[in-house]
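#struct-help
A.M.: can someone run this one for me? Single chain, 151 residues.
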Amino acid sequence: MDSPNSKGKLTVKVSTAQGAIPIKDAVVYITSYTPNVSPDSETFSLRTNSDGITQTLELATPARSLSLSPGSAVVPYSEYVLIVKKDGYKTAELIGVPIFDGITSIQNVFLVPLTEDELLSGDITEEAFYENGNYGNLRSDGVEGLRRESI
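D.P.: on it. Structure tokens below:
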């Protein structure tokens, strides 16, 4: 029987050179993907380790039993937005990353180094990116290694 508190898991692998070089200390923001996000939406913040991998994070999903009901108005997965940042690289944004109940998903993210001109002109700051508050508040409670920030 499916739990009303269904969870899926997500691990993010960040690298460059088409996956050949892992990127350490990249910051990965994860938030629920819903149009017109409510102010109560939570965003998780994770850092990659020396292998370019984040810790595995549990995320809310609809019950897996929904996948057995053809024509259901509710999709049997949740969608999330991933924003990946690292100094010296272009910011990556993945929208609609699906997470299924009881499944561990591994999302590869390939960052592209900034060009010399882009480095000289300066990258968009985190503050400017989040100035309109679309991605809610970062949450760290209950998840080891996460940090809480106000955006």
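A.M.: thanks! Residues 125-151 have pLDDT under 50 and may be disordered.
D.P.: also worth noting: The chain has one domain: 7-134.
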